[in-house]
Amino acid sequence: MSRKLPPLNSLRAFEAAARLSSFSLAADELCVTHGAVSRHIQQLEAWFGHALFERYNRRVVLNEAGGRYLAEIGAAFDRIALATAQQMQRGHATILRVNAPATFSLRWLVPRLSAFQLDHPAIEVRLSTSNEAIEKVRDEFDIVIRGGPHRVEGYLADEFLSEVRLPVCSPKLLKGKTLKKPADLAHFTLLHAATYPRMWPDWLAKAGTPNLTPRHTLTLEHFYLTLQGALDGLGVAMGPTALVADDIAEGRLVHPFDGPALPAWRYFSYVALARAEDPAIQAFRAWLAITGSHAAPDTA
């Protein structure tokens, strides 16, 4: 039985214009003229016998019928793109594009990636780092890792790792010094991350020492720099338990106090529903779940 389909060029023009809310931007993406996109849309609306857009002076907006159609057409185009990519990669390594926060990547993901590559030599992971909202990067990556949970339309979210935050320092920093209770921090340098300015004040308040004045403070631009500073004996940093677990286990860092602990991230992988059945994506998500379950338990 033959399929009843509208003109495919009109479908491409509709999908691009609907997604971008602009005939001009759709024309740029498809490398055609504005007039060509407009004609394709008119042809599609004539084929259906009703409008798909509300037209204003300088913009277009999907009407209810157009919105329903885009939901189906967009998913179909995603599946076609995925099938096309899989055909093009046959006989070659599958490229898996992953985006994750920088500190998480440096302290947790990269040290463990070799295990995934050994188990999946036909999958080439290309890792990029950022903290941008998922909505801004989702079209560029197959898997996005962020703290959460966040609700992202059309995306599947899986939690694979959680942590809390506690002070950490190098054992060499403690030689000849006493650091047994929070008040003792008055004799040490506290390492602050510019991206998390409330971390130390919140912890000190929870520890019952909100007015503590440390010997020195040192503010570094990124969170991972404070952890490196702690490793190098510069001072005491706030350490996410999941991201410092290897250093604690191998004695490079210690927790001078058992608590209190600040709640921190729950890490999630975010994948487009249309791509959730991709074998490479499924393999990486399964690996994250298994690897995260083996992480050191949170310190209460």
From TrEMBL:
Any one GO molecular function term: sequence-specific DNA binding
InterPro entries reported for this sequence: LysR-type_TF_proteobact-type, LysR_HTH_N, LysR_subst-bd, WH-like_DNA-bd_sf, WH_DNA-bd_sf
GO biological process assignments: DNA-templated transcription
Pfam families: HTH_1, LysR_substrate
Keywords of the record: DNA-binding, Transcription, Transcription regulation
Span of domain HTH lysR-type: 6-63
UniProt similarity note: Belongs to the LysR transcriptional regulatory family.
UniProt xrefs under PANTHER family: HTH-TYPE TRANSCRIPTIONAL REGULATOR (PTHR30537), HTH-TYPE TRANSCRIPTIONAL REGULATOR TRPI (PTHR30537:SF74)
The protein, known as: Transcriptional regulator GcvA
Organism: Pararobbsia silviterrae
Gene behind the chain: gcvA
